[in-house]
Structure formats: structure tokens, C-alpha cells
Amino acid sequence: MDEQERQRYQAVLERLDRFSTWTDSSIGIPFTRFRIGLEAIVGLIPGIGDVVGLLLSGYVLLQAQKVGASGKVKRRMVRNILVDFLGGLLPVVGDAFDAVFKANTRNTRLLREYLYEQLEEEPKQRFPWWPFLGLCVLFAVITAVVMWIW
Hints:
By secondary structure, the chain is mostly helical.
């Protein structure tokens, strides 16, 4: 795969990451770690909200089509979109379901995995800061105890 194609894939993923964050998790709920997005807010509008969410979710699918994602990946995306749409139609619990299911984030992750597979790269993993800091503290305590005993 050439460098130009790699850069195009990366640009699509960066754009979809921003879009997914905006639609699925851009607004923090005070005093919790939970985040919702614009799609959950728009979903509160009776009748129109779920249709707007459906249209927004189509953007990720359109981008997958543009980069040539496989039929299997696109079918999984359509399934996620339909689950999100139908779940959002449920009275009372539908809006909560919309906030939790996060179809755009799921679909962006599906496309990312597919593109990384095409690029023959492993997805970048986040550095495990909390275990690292915990081990640093543990080793510092062990070192202090050993030094105190000597």
C-alpha cells in the first residue's frame, strides 16, 4: 500500500473520530464519568430526533463506502445503525438506549479495525498509565523498606 493511500485512510479515521466524539460522547454528565453526544440530545425531540440520528449515522457508513470497506464491515455497520435507531424508538428507555449504544463510535471502530488490517498494522494501543504508576509506587515502597532495613 502506498503512502498516499495510508494518509487518506488516516485522514478519514481522524475525521470519523471527531464526528463520533461529537455525536456520541462530547458532553460530560456532571459528577459521573458518563458522556453523551449530540445524537442523544437530538433524540429527545419526538418524531424527528430519531430520524436525524439515523441520518447522522449514515455519514460513517458513507465514509466506509468511500474507502472501499468490505461488504461484511458495511453490513455490521448497518446492523449497528438499525439497532440504534430501533432502540431509540422505544418509549421512555429509547433515549437512554441512544445515549449508551453509541453506534457511530462502534462503526468508526469497525472501520478502523478493517483499515488497519488493510494497512497490515496493529492498532495503536494506549499506554497503561494507571498500572505503570501503581507499579512505580509499589517499587518505591519496596525500595524504601529495603533501604530502611539496611
